[in-house]
Every structure is written in structure tokens, then in C-alpha cells.
Amino acid sequence: MGDDSEWMKLPTEEKVQHKVWKARMAGYEEASKLFSSITDEKSPEFTKYAGLLKKFVTDTNAFAQDKALDAVMAFIENASVAGRVCQDVVQGVITKCFNASKQKTKEKGIEILMLYIEIEKQDVVQECLMAGLDNKQPKIVITTIQTMRIALRNFGNKIMPIKPLVPKLPKLLEDRDKNVREEAKSLIIEIYRWIKQAIKPQMSNFNPIQVSELEDEFEKIGNEKPQQQRFLRSQQDLKAKMEEQVASGGSGEVAEEEAEDEVDAYELLSAVDILSLLPKDFYDKLEAKKWQERKESLEALDKLASNPKLEGGDYGQLVRALHKVIAKDTNVMLVALGGKCLAGIAKGLRKKFTPYAVSTVQCILEKFKEKKQMVVVPLRECIDAAYPWITLESVQEDIVAALDNKNPSMKAETASFLARCFSKSTMSTLPKKLLKVFCTSLMKTVSDTTLEVREASFLAIGTAMKVVSEKHMMPFLVDVDSIKMQKIKECCDSVVLLNMKGEPRSGQAASKPADNQPKPVQRPATAATAAAKAPGSRPSTAPSGGKKAAGGASKKAAGKGKGSKKGSAGGSKDEITEPILSDEAVDEKAEALFTADVLKQLVSANWKERLDAIQKVTEIVKGTSKEELKTQVVVRTVAKKPGLKDNNFQVLKVKVELIAHLGKNTVFTKMSAGFVLADLVDKIGDVKNGAAVREALSCIAEACSMEFVGKEVITLAFEQKNPKNQLESLNWLSSAIKEFGLKINVKLLIENIKKSFAHTNPAVRSAGISLCGIIYMYMGQNFRVMFETEKPALLKELDAEIEKVKGEKPPAPTRGVAPGGDANEEDDADGADQDDKDDDKIVDSLPRTDISERITPELVNELADKNWKIRKEALEKIETILKEAPFVSASLGPLPEALKLRLNDNNKILIGTTLGICSSLGTKLGPHCKAHIRVIGPALISCFGDSKPNLRVSAVSTLNVWMENCNLVPLVEQETLSDALKLENPNLRQELLGWLSEKLPNHKPLPSEFKLCIPHLLSCLEDRNAEVRKKAQDAVVPFMIHTGYDSVFRACSKLKPASKDQIMAIIEKAKANLPAKPTKAKKATSSKAAAAPVVMDDMEDEIKAPSRPLSTASSEGGAETKTESKAKIGKGKAKAPPAATSKKKKEEDTSPPMNLTVPKEKRFKDEKSLKILKWNFIQLTGEYTEQLTLQMEKNFSKGMMEMMYNVDFKQHIKAIEILIKSLDSLRDETVGNLDLILKWFTVRFLDTNPSMLNKALEYLRRAFTMLVDMDYSLHEYEACSFIPYFIVKVGDAKDNVRKDVRGIIKILYKLYPVSKIFVFLMDGIKSKNSKQRMECIEELGNLIESYGISVCQPSPGVAVKNIAGQIGDRDNGVRNAALNAAVQAYMEVGENQFYKLTGNLNDKDQSLLDERIKRSLKNKPAPKAKEEERPKTAPTQPQRSASQSQIQRPTSALPKSASSSSMKKTYLTDFEYEKTQMEMPELKQFDLDEIFQPVKLPKINRARDPSPMTRVSPADASATIGVVIAQITSTDILTCIQALAQIDELLKDEEHARLLGSHMDQLMLHISMQFRMTLSTHINNEDVAKEEVIRLCRCQLGTLLALTQKPFLATKTSKDILKDLFNSLITILLDQRLSLLHDGPQVVRSVNVMIVKIMEKSDYTSTTCALIKSLQESVASETCSPKFLDLIMKCIWKMIKMIPEIINDLAVDRILLETHLFLRNFPTSTWKNRTSDLPLRTIKTVIHTLAMLKGAKILGQLNLIDASENSEVKMFLQKSLKKDPNARNEMNGTSDDTDSVKSHQKPKKLNKSTHDMLAEIFKKIGSKENTIEGLNNLYDFKKKHPEADLDPFLKMSSQYFQNYIERGLKNIEREREGKMPSQTESMGFSATDYSRKTAPTTTSAEEMDINFYMDKLRSLRAKCGLENTDPSKQENVVSKKEDKPEKFASEEKDENVEICVKPVLSSSENRENNPSASSVNNSATSANVSELKLRLERIKKLSKS
What global pTM score does this model have? Predict the structure, then answer.
């Protein structure tokens, strides 16, 4: 738009898409502000802009792009839908921002990618970045590498995996661009920082120089441990922990612990499949007699096994073969080589070597008897490689046997191997039982006579001592003398323990001192500490405990380790830190904020001035925004002396209230809190201001966390001596815990509470006791235990306080809670356990006792003693130990294993005692029970089978105690439950099943191993014990809650037939009682979040009157009440699992019922690549429903899923009603999830409830109608997964269902090709349901009647034969339907063809068919009556004259005699649902004949019969366009012409014509195929009339002409299709058979014109590329005729002439690519041996023309050509540009402007006389009589006035007139120089004067006039008996029109020129090849009289003869 005011009025959404860059820039700025201002991340505003983001980042204007990037960043930060367009945006950033010249643009692009990573889209970002590395532009590659490095540095290698980068590194390091190589090095260095040595194996492929450079950089890094700097949204807890650790003076250990898992270099390697690479004769050679052959095979294997990572597979045969070599081969060299190979395989396979590890160790132990080192060393290496994948217990016997062997070499090597194994063991992997066995054998070998055996034995025992400690080792070394013991201890001291990687363990000599670690960022440990460290700060402004905290920070961090991080504050907010400001900076900022006078008054001695000043400060603070206010400055200003110790209570009150205001309304950090907490605690006991101080403390706690403030307050309070302050601090803490929850360190509380108990002031003691009562509500009896040592009187008071609150639940927190709720609540696994984790955290903070030291080996031995009394005493000792410790830590030593043995004791009394110990131990362990349940749990369950009932009851209660602190998951994972149920112990089974029935319903989901229990449960259902059977039946429902019905059903199918029926009845009964999965309660969202488009509960309330009758339950809306839930449970006879929270009432699910989280395109892609099951089943199985459920869970809300997969059909109806409602409100979501919805309905079709089925059909009808209105077409996968199952319902028993299904099928015809639905209906005939067969056959008959026989798929023969086969069906309805359908086919194809299609029928069926056909023919109405009945199908036309009725135009379709019955077959059906919509009365009044009435001369204008397609809606035409186009290639000419007629009718309406846009390639291809079919089939077929062939060609040419006249269609044809079309048309030009037919030459000329039309109207780039490609194929073909090649070149020459006018529309890079491919296949050097190099010269002419027009800029458009430096195209371009001085100057940079190619001086302005003279000259040139004189005058004028400017005169004329003047001046110049003008110029035609844009095109009517006159002339000559000569030679007669002006005549000549004229041809060749061009003379306007006289004389002679 010209005026800015016009676009400024546009909305933002239109501005950002505007053509003017300023408008877009303004739109981007508005969008950025809009995105930042929207607080609801699910706002619909975001959805509007999501699709435009890619255009934002790819804006072509640099200034607009900069603002667009800001808007995109704001969008990503605030919109929840940002992830949907991630891939498009990232790709746009990489292609358009990474190569930007502005550094700022690159930085913003990189930041956009970082933001996408933060919103969990790192996979998409990395995938796009990996693709960016392959870009050909170095700038993009460089920035891509930089982005990868920055992402890795910010997020770490866990979020940005390094493995995909590794294969790309060698290529990047070898890049030709230096900057790429340097960035690649920087990336490798960053990778090294994260994975250290793991990258080095990958550097073997690098350049040695680069490796050395990288090694130097690695040394500089040292052992620096990188830390994650940016975090994902799901990592905010980790971020808070890390910042808190840094703030407390630590070094970010939490983050390091998270990233502690080092990357293994093995994981970065690519696996090699050596099994497939083994030589074919490997095993034969390995067993050969000659050792050389065996060696050869092993050497081949050695090369393969040396690969560091091997692909898994069946290595059994290979390993056995190597074992045989090692054990039995006599050649020691081969034994060593076999050991080396086996070691390589073990290292390469790692864990996959486990199946072969034990046998390998056994084999090598036997071979250790070999003494030669060349054998022992590789065997040693092999056994060490196998050790990680075995346990010492598995080879225990083999090692003991080897140590007892007589061979000293074997004993020494075995002992050494044992020592190496011990060095990699721990106390848990080296139990005493195993150690005892090995020590017994080693004690024998230490006394061996061989030194090597003794030394190895000492080393093994010393290593074991280092692992388990001397104390645990000494019981096995009782008999060792002092000398040997000293030797053992020396070995123990010198040995270095290793980890499983073979590296020294942490804390040993190999570890480096802490000084080498990188120094952490210096941030304050706490606010108080930071305040204490502030330069120049006074002690009064910081807490007194600051120094202590500062001093002990590092020690605490070092001492506590992980425990120091537990109990973090209410982490509802991310902790914000800030640097401490100096006093000078504070004063400066305060003065700028408050003015110097106010600051002076604040410290005034006059309290009134201070009061006035602090009030002013308060006003200023309240009037300043949160972002502008620096809280630390205000706090420190207020805290300045006298600060909060002000003696005036009024001033103090205002100050305290100001602090509270800051805590509530500003960013209040711990740093700021540290300056006021000490003073606030000092004033908390103030009588007048105490309440305000307490409120201020609560506000600070809300801002900084309760844990921090509570800890500081309680610590500071008890460091004071003022009891009033201590009392109020305790009171405040009690109320704060109720408000915030127990978010404070309990250990610290207990210490200070005990101090309050000992206080002399009774009020303080009472406050302490009250605080204990509050804490008891949160912790229960565990808290009371901590005060057992207090005095009885105090305990009495404490118990009385506890009694007051006993049974009360702690109040829900009201402060310090994030408004949005915890993000983890949405997670399935974490949401249910969140409260338990909080409780565990509180309980875990209690002080615990480590009793592992008291569980001595002696005590354990006593527990295992044979004497039951000693065992009893040992158990009593353990009871005593537990009584002394109120709470025990997780470290129990060997106690759990010992108790496990005692639970299986023979003495029942000891079992009872052990159960009591286990119960007590479970209580004292608390949450640490999880660490030992795997040991104790199975033993407790085994006690369920005890014969004594009291022991069973005790075992159940003990296990319940343990289950209070853990869950069943560990027991399920180790298959304890399935193993227990496997035992046929009735007591165990009934107790365990009963216990599981109680626990399972409320338990969280169990792992898949729980399904192993199902077979045992089923066997319990048949147990002989009645009690077991009863318990098993009660347990079926709880089991099915966790395993699902399908798993139990599959297990039942494997039962014996005798048992199956009975158990299936029980299972089906249980299925009915199975409760639905509860929806997860979610916290109420804010009011802004309520803007979601559809809320399920609201929708249910609105649905009051469903369209079909429903049960009363379905009309109930809103959330379920408590009464309803109880009723459901009672009806189901099973308890429904409780909701995820403890709330009594389920909260509403306010999320929309469906979304677009996973697009359906991804599902289609997965189904295509077979990643998921195809929806194709005969019987629905659990696999399909499970897959569908998983897919729908991602895109449907929880509440919706619960309704859709409920066992109650009423819930299904409710879900369908919501879906119906969503058709209006969630239209995009419905379309995006259409495949899932249709699949779900196919599942529902298997249900039998009629109400649900009616509602489903209603939804389908509405949904499909909506899709029709949207012009939507069903995808292949959507249709195939729904239509076959939907057709099944057409055979439903109810009439109304069948009627609805038939109606929906009619709608489906508009959404999916009819020919494909025909196939589904054919499959429906195979059903056993007679109603279904009947309905399908009836529908098939309707389709044949409506669409003709061509609709039959896969072929008419197959379809008709199958239909006829149903005539003999037993059902009368099926027979009638088959007969009717067969009759329809008969009417379409006729008698002869019909009986060929039906095949042989039996006599009875044949007679029935014949009778029905006769009856139908008899009842068939007359054609005229039929036309009157259906005027829409074939309206009658007015009568025409005889001459007019015989004329056809190329676009005609059918002759007048064609009946309407034969036409209606190809028409689109008028569906019964939309008859009124399809009627278009204006079309009935449109008579094509009236168009031609004003034309006087007869023309070829017979129109085709109108097609009903013009009356059909665009949706219908689009749905069936494929069928119509497919009919073009029909072998039946009539069918083809009918299809072309329909296409022509579409093209008459531009709106309908646009429907062809997406079908242009298909349409052009079919026309091209029909042209080829015409030449190959029709023209040779004697049964086909040649007139029909000519008519077919004309129809096709007419359709092509109509297509070329629609620019929006013509330009959509692709290169390959154009190439095929050109080949077909040129083939017709060269085929002589067509010219011999009547009117054949006229068709050939029409083809000639059509080729020109296609070149002019199609996409110029595609046309040029297609012709060059065709030329290349023609040159390559040995069978290509020279004439074909010539015509292709002529076409290219014509395009060359057009290039100057169309250069701006050409994609030069694509054309250069095609020329490059031509020259690559046919280089210049190869043309020397060819007869003609004209094709090469043609290609070079193309290149040269482009070079001359584009100049040196063309060298920048070689980006599509690989290795452009070596391309002949580039060489030729450079050569051409060097010859052009202007281009050469441009290449050298001497030309400042592209318009300076003309070096003329600026022409002078003409004076008046000269101007008048020129005007007179041009007037002469314009007249016919004086044109020659005018040209001569103009030539003389130019000679006399060379400086004169003629442009003002030339610009006023057409381009043709300008060319005419230029040619005339050249001819005059040559004549005066004595030369004759060239033949082509004398004709007024040259190689460069063709102008497509300015030359008016000849209309089809004019061409038809020419054709008519030619036909007329030919007929007159025939009547006279004259010879019909080639009409092309008489073209000159037609083309000369004396009554036209000269330029129009010449322009008409140019339109009729045959393709093009070759610039290099001579005039004679030109005349021969182009007769139509040579028949016109530009300089003459009258006919050639002499030629006419000669022809007249020739005619007379012929007539006389």
C-alpha cells in the first residue's frame, strides 16, 4: 500500500503477513507485546499465530526479522502451543538466521533454539541441527556448530546427547572452511569437558595434528567438572537445589550428583556384526588338520574381534569353537590367539557375553596349567574380560578345585585371578559365606612349596581383607602365624581397590586433591552469612549468627553429603539470588530513589522527622513497580541506625509494616532478609509492635521459604537472653507451621525445643510444649519417641498436650503454596506418591542410630547356631539393641539375612520372637524399610504357610507394618508373590490371597511382572481347598485392577477345556465388577485458565435433550457426588480404588476433552513404517485396544478417557455427546484426532447396546457432514481403519440402523473416492450375514448406475462376476439385489460385453438373469421421456442447422446422437441428502448455442453436452476428480471423451477449475498417456473408426488449450510431467500415420501450436528444465530419431528467445543444474567423435544467454551443483563473462551499479525543431505508404544527430514496432554499405526479436476460422476432382490478411510459427523446416499476385485433364 495509514489500521494478525516490511515490523512489535501480556499459556490467541511463526523467522527484511525474532521468543516463553511448530521454526532459524550478516540476528536465533530446549523440545532441535551440519553454506554450518556447543554447555550431555554428534566430527574437521574446522574443535573441547576420556577413542579418525592440538586443550581443562547452567521446565527442582547449594557456600554438589554418571566411551561406538563377516569356511578351517589353516581362520577372527563394540547375536557356536581351541589345540600359539579372540569378544559384547562367561572361566582355569607366558598372558586377559559378567558364587566350585590342583602354575594363576576379583568386589558382593570357602582354600596355598603360589595367595587374602575390613576377616585367619599375618597385612596396605571399569576407587591414591577442582561461583551461603561478609557492614545490620554460619558452611556441606540437601523449604518458587551491594552503591541508589533530604531525616534524632521520612519512603515504595524497585536497597536503608531498634514505637511500626509490604509485594531474597531478621527477632516480644513483627516474619517466610526463616528465627531467639522474645518466637513458629506446613529441619527444632524445656521461665516451657503438640500432628508417635529421656513430670505435660491433638489431621497449608499447583501432580507415577514422599522426608529428618556396628559376626554366628537356646539368646540381644535405639538407620549389616534364616526356623517359638523383632524393626526403620524389604519380605510371606494360626496372624501384621513404609513393587519385581502362589500350600495361598485382596485395590500400579501371578491365581480357583477357592475368587477383581481383563482372558485361553468354561464364568462376572480407573484430581486452575474452548463438565450440563432417547443416567451432568460413587461401588460388588488425593469429593476435570499433542501425521508415519500395528483385524484382540488406548491418552483428557473406556454404556453415550458438542467448538481438534475417533467407534460397533449405537451413528452423520462442508478428504489410513468395519453395521438386524448406515455411506462418497469404497463393498459381499450381503449388493448396483461400469474395482470383470455369483444365494433379498445390480451392469455395457464379464452361470441362475433383463428392457422408458424426467442430467438443446451439427471443435465430447442414458454414467451422483443444494437454476438457463449465434462465419464450435459437474458442489467434484481423470486413459474412446467433457465443464467456472490445482500433474500425465495410446493402439485398431481417433485428439488438444488459458493451473505442472507431455506431442508431430487421416494434418498443426502454447503458459523454469532433460535423454538414447532431436532443440531455441523477457521469472539455479547434468553425462570432450555437436552448442547457448543477462551474479547461483569448482558450467560461465567487458568489470568490482553496463554518455535533450522533425519521421514510419521513406529519414537523422535520445518516441509504441524499426535501420545500413539483408531479417524475424509478453495471442476462435476455411477449401477442391496438397504449404493463403494493419498481421504470423527457428540455420533450412514462418513477409501487406496466378493456372490444367 502506498500510504502507511492504510496498513496501520489493520489488525496485528494481518500486519505480520503484509507485503510492506514496515507493516510487518510494526506487526511483529505488537505481537511481541501481545504474547508477553497474555498470562494464560493456553489462550486461543497463541493458536492464531502458531502457523505464522515460520514466516516470522524467515522474513526477508533484516529490520523486520529482528523484531520478528523478539516476538517468537515471547511466544515460546508464554505459549503452550509453541512446541507444535517447533520443527518449522527451528528449520527456518537455521536456514534464514544462521547465515544472516547481523550478529544480533544469529544470537537471537540461537536463543530461540535454547528456549525450545527449555520447553522439552531438545530432540527436535538436535535433529534439525544435525541436518544443518549438512548445509552447503559454511555460515550456516558454523553457526550450527556454535549452537550445539552453546546448548551442550548450557544443558549438559544428558539433555543434549553427544552420541549423535560423534559420527559428524571427522567430516567437520576436514571441512574446507577454516572457521568450520575451528568451531568443530571448540565443540570437541566442550564435549571433552562433559565426557572426558570417553571422546578419545573417537579421535583415532582425526588428523594427527588436530589430535595433538586437542590434547593440549584437554590438558588446560584438567579435571574441571562442568555444571548445567540452564534447565528444562521439568528441572526446576534441580535448579532450586543447585542454587540453594551454591548459596549455602557449596560447590553445586547436587548438580554434580545428578550428572555423576559418566559417559562410557563404549556407548559412543558403532556396533559391528562380526558373525555376518566371518569367512564362509571359518569353522571348517578351524578344525583343519594343518595348523596354518587354523591360524589363518583365527587371525581373521582376531581382526574382527578387535572392534571395541560388537553387535549382539548368537555367539554360542563361535564361543564353543574357541573353547575347543583353547582346551584341546596342541599348538600353543593358536591357544594364545584363541584366548585373545575370546577376550576381544567378551570386551566387545560386554553384558551380552553373560551366557558364555561361566563356561569361559571354567575353560581358562583348566588351561592355566600351561607354564608359557605367551599363553598365560592372553588367557589372563580373557578371564579378566569375562569376570564382570559372572558372580564368584557361580564359579566357586571351579576356583576351589583349581586351588586344590597339584599343578603349581594353575594354583598361582587362580589365586592371582581371585585377588583381581576381590579388588573389584564390595562387602555386599563378597559375603562371609563365600569368603569362608575361598579363605579355607587359600589358607592351604599360603603354605605351598612354590613361591609364586604363596605370593599370589597372600595377595588374594590381603585384598579380601582390604574389602571387608580386618575385623570381618580375622575369624577366618585364626590359625595363621605372625609371619604370614604380617605378610597378609603388607599386601592389604599396598593393594589398590578398583571399580568395575578397572579404575582406582574414589578416595584412594589415584584420586586428585580437592584443590584441583574448579572453584564455584561465589554466592552467599545464606542471606545472613552474606550480610556478615558485606564490606563495611555493621554488626547491627546482620544476624549475630552470621559468622558461625559462614564458618561452618563448607564443613557442613562436606560432612553431610546428600543428606545436607534434604528438607528444602516449601519449594513452590524458584529461589532468586542477588549479589550483595557495597555501602556506597546502596547510598547512591537510595539517594536516587528517595532524595537526600529523606535519607537525612531517616537518621535524625527527632522522632517526628524520622516518622515523616519513613512515611515518605513507604509512599515511594508503594508507588514504584516491582521490576524497578531494588529491595535490598530499601531494606538496608531502613535498617540503618537506628533501624529496627528505633525507640519510638510509631516509627518502628511503620518500618516493620514496610518490611512486611516488601516481603509480600517485591522480589525479597534471602540476602535482603539477612539484614533485618536479627532485629525483627529482637523486637518480636515488643508489646505494641510484636504482632506486626510476626506478620513481617511470615511475609518474609512466604518470599524466601519457611525453612530458612524458621531456622534463623529459632536460632536467633535462643541465642538471646530475653525470655519474652523466645516465648513469642516459639508462638510464631507454632502458628507458622500451621500456615506453611512442617517445612523446617526437625532435628534443629528438637534441639531448641529441649532448650525451652530446660528454661527457667514457665511460659517458655509451655510454648515449647505447645509447639510439640503442633509438630505431633505432622509426625505422629515418632516425634514423641524423641523425648523419652526427659523428666517424667515434663513427659506428663507433653502427653497431655499430645492428647489434645491426637487424631487430628494437620491443616492444609494456606501460605507459601504456588497458585498453579505442583507440576508433578500431573505425572502418573509421581502424583500418587507425592504426599508419601513428603512424609518420608519429615520422618527421615529424625535422628537415627546406626546399629550395624553392634551386629557383630559373633552375634550372627549365634543366630545360626545349632543349639536353639543360643539362637534364642541372640534374638534377645537383638531385641535389646532395638529397644535402646528409638530410630535406626538403613545400615543394618548382616542382620536382615540372619533374620531371614530365623523366620524359617524349626522352632516355632523362635519364629514368633523373630516376627516380633521384624515388626519392631519395621517401625524403627521407617521409610528405610524399602532397602530391606527384598530380604525380609519373602521370608515373612513364607510364614503365611505356617500350620499355626497365631504365627500366620503375626506374620500378616508384621508384613503390614513393613508395607506402611514401602510397597509391593520390590516383591513383584523379584517374583516373590508368584513363587509363593506356585507352592501348593493351602495355608499360604489363602492367607496371601486374602492379604493381597486388601492391599491391591488401593495400591499404585504394579510392574508387568505381576502378570506372572495370573496362572497361579487361576489354579487357585480350582484348588481342592474351599477356603483357597473363595479367597481366589475374591482376589480376581483386585488382580484385574492391575493386570487388566485382557491379560487374565489370555491366560484363561491356555487352560484345559474342562476348566476353561467354569473359570471363564468367574472371570466374566469379575469383569462386570471391575471398577473404572479414577480420574486424577487436579488443583483448581486460575480463572484465566478457564478460557479453554470446551470444558467437559460444562458440556455435559448443556446436553439436556439428546437427539435419541437415553437412559436417565446419561442425562445427569456435572461431577459425580459421593452418593453416586458409593452406589457404583455397591453395584459392582468391589471397592473402587480411591482418588489420587485424600479429598472426599472428586474435583472437576476442566481441561478440554481433546487436544493435538501428537499430530495424526506422526501416527500415519508410524503405521506406514510398521512401528505400530495396522488397524486390520478379524477379531478384536487386546493388543489393538491397548495400542488405541495409549495413542488416545496423549490427545484426550483423563475424564474423557475414563468415559470412553468405561464398562458402562451410559458413559459411552456421555462421551459421544461431548464429541458431538466438540464438532462446533473443537473443530480442528476433531479433524486432528479423526483417525483415533473412528477407530474407537469401530470398537464400539462390537457392542450391542442400541442407544449407544444410535448415538454413534448420529455423531458420524454430523461429523462427516461437517467434513464435507470443510472440503475434507479422508486419508487412506483413516478410511481403511473405519469403512470396512462400518460396512458390517449395514447388515444390522434393526431397520433404523441400516437406514442410518446407508445414509452415512452416501456422505462417505463425498469424502473418499467412490472406486475405493466399491472395493470395501465388494469385501462386504463375503459376509455370512445375508442382510449385509443384500445391502452391499444394492449399493454396488446404485454405484454402477450412477458412475458407470468404470467404477467397478479392481476391474469390471471381477466385480460383475462376483455380483452374478450371488444370484444363486439362498436368501431371496440377496438374489433380488444381485439380479438388479447385474441388470444395471447390463444396461451399461450391452449384451455382448456383459455376458463376457459374468462368465459361465448355471442354468437356473442364467434363466433368472435373462428373465430379469427382459423385464427391465420392457419396462425401460423411452429416451425422450427419460430426458424429460431428469432434465438435470442431460438437458435438451435447441435444434441446430444441418451444417452446424456436423462441425466439431477439438474440445467437443459427444455427438448429438448420444443418449442421456449413456451420458449419466460418468456424471457425479446427486446425493439424496443434498438435492436442494445441488440445484443451480442459472445453469439451466445457460445455453451454449446462444454464445455462437452472433458469429456469422461457421466455426468448429460444437460444444460438448453439459456435465452435471457444474451443478455439483466443489466438495463433491474434489472427492471424485481422481475417478474422472483416471477415465481419460480408458481404452474406450467414448469413456475418455466423456471424462474430457467433464474436465472442460469444470474449466468453464473458475471456482470449480481451481479444484484441479492439486490434480494437474495427474491430469497432464493421463492426457500424455492417452496421446501415446492413440498412436500405439487406436490408430492401428481396425475396429476403431479413424474419425473417432481424430475426434479424441481434438478433444485432448481442446482440454490442453483450456488448461493453458488458466494461468493458475498451467503453471502447476511439474518438470517431469512436462517432459513426458512434450515427448508425446512431438512424437505425434513426427508420426506420418496421423497426417494420412482425414483432417490429420490439421490436428498436426494444432499439436504444433499447442506445444508453443504450453511453453508460453507453463512455468518457464519447469519448461526449460523439462526440455533440457528431454534433450539429455534423447542424446543418450540410441533409438532416438534425428528429427525428434531437432524438434527438441527447436523448442529450446524458442525458450532462448524468450529468456530476455522472462529472466526475472526463471529459477536460474535449477536451469544451471540441468545444464550441469547434461554436461556431466556428455562432456565437451566426447563430442569430437559425434557427427553433430548441435545439442552441445544449444546447451552452451542457454548458458551464454543466462550469463549475458545475469552478469557476474550468476556465479552465485551454482549452489545446487555439487563440487561446482569442477563443473563445466562454471568454467563456461567464467569464459562467457570474460568476453563481456561489462560483466568483466562487474567481476572485478569496477562497476558501482548494475545499470552502468551502458557506457554511453547521457543523451542530450532535443530542442523543439529537432523534436518536431523526429515526430514527422515517426509519423511517416507509421503509415503504410511512407514507411520506407520514414525509415530512411530516421537513419539519416541518427547519422546527423548521434547524441539524440529516441526513447521518448519508441516507448510510446509497442515492442513489436520497436523491433520493426530496429530491423529496418539495420537493413538500410547494410544496403548503403553494399550488403544484402539476411533472409531471416528480410522476413521480419530474427532469433532475438520474439516477445511473448507483448505479442497478442491468436484466440482459439481465430484458429478455428482458419481451420474452417481450410476445410472448406479442401472440400471444394475435392468436389472439383483436384488433388489435395499438403495443407501446411497453403498456410500463406490463410495468413495473409490485407485488411489488417501490418503489425497485427506480423504478430499473427508469429503465433502460427512452428515451434521456433534455429538461429544458426541457413535460410533454405529455415524455409524447409518452417514453412509457415516463411510464408509471411513483414514488409509487404498485399498478396503475392504472381504466385496466385501460377497456382490458378495449375488448377485449370488439372481440371481440363
Answer: 0.33
